[in-house]
Amino acid sequence: MILLIIIFLLYLNPNICNNQEDNHWFKRGSCRKLWRPDNLPGKCFGLKLHNEYEDLKHITTVTNAGDCRSLCCNIGDKCVTWQYQNSSSECKLGPPVRLGSEGADTGDWCEPNPPGKWNGYRLKSKTNNQCEWGEQLPNQCFGFGPEVMTNDNKRHTTNSCADACCNSDKCDMWQEMEGRGCYIGSKSAVWCDKEQGAFEGGRKCIPGFCGGLENTILPAHKLALDKELKKEKSNIHV
């Protein structure tokens, strides 16, 4: 009779076993007090989708940032950095990634600013140094290179940024935002985000990659693990 009930339940919900397995990966794990205090509000590079990892390929959907962080915790040393984009429900995991221009022994990095609306266009045509602009570029583009400054080393306005691009033979697209600067470049080297969805993310503290907080975070993490272990042992003996 029990076997028939189990078969009937599997018939009604064939994913029931997978759901139980998913719940295991979404548990908090053993990373208590191991996370660095900074958030990752801008797009990170060098990460890959969670289901590209062999251990997690059966998990099709991650519905929130907390679950994404748990996945990073529970695959151990394979993940140091996690990031979740709310608009696309994408959970990405990966190795150590530096935030902005901070010092770190890695080529992977995260944009330090959250997504915002940019001023910018692609070049449609150019005649006698007069430019006609085509497609608007409201989402952030990457690959421009360093910020372009005016001749007197000041930040460009929106109009002067467009002029800087038009006056360059190597520019066919530009972007500018107040407080962020002017960037010009070529479509062969630049690509743009398709959406402006907000990001959440974090990084584990590991030796050599903790922003100088190793002596604070790592002992606190060890103490938290010891407390959890003692609690588990006491529950066993109850």
Rg for CA atoms: 24 Å
Distance between the termini: 34 Å
Q: Which sheet architecture does the biggest sheet show? A: 4 strands, antiparallel
Mean pLDDT: 87
Q: Based on Cα principal axes, name the global outline.
A: elongated
Q: Give me the strand/helix succession.
A: HHEHEEEEEEEHEEEEH
Q: In which order are the strands of the major sheet placed?
A: 1-3-2-12
The tally of helices reads 5
**Low-confidence blocks of residues:** 3-18
Number of strands: 12
Q: Beta-strand level of the residues, as a percent range?
A: 15-25%
Helix content: 25-40%
Structural class: alpha+beta
What is this structure's SSE topology?
Elements: H1 2-12, H2 16-26, E1 48-49, H3 65-74, E2 81-85, E3 90-94, E4 98-99, E5 109-110, E6 119-127, E7 130-136, E8 141-142, H4 158-166, E9 173-177, E10 181-185, E11 191-192, E12 199-203, H5 214-237
Parallel strand pairs: 4-5
Antiparallel strand pairs: 1-3, 2-3, 2-12, 6-7, 6-9, 8-11, 9-10
Question: What does this protein structure show overall?
Answer:
By secondary structure, the chain is an alpha+beta fold. 27% of the residues lie in helices and 21% in strands. It has helices spanning 2-12, 16-26, 65-74, 158-166, 214-237, and strands at residues 48-49, 81-85, 90-94, 98-99, 109-110, 119-127, 130-136, 141-142, 173-177, 181-185, 191-192, 199-203. The strands form four sheets. The chain has a four-stranded antiparallel sheet, with helices on one face. A four-stranded antiparallel sheet has the order 7-6-9-10, covered by helices on one side. The two termini are 34 Å apart.
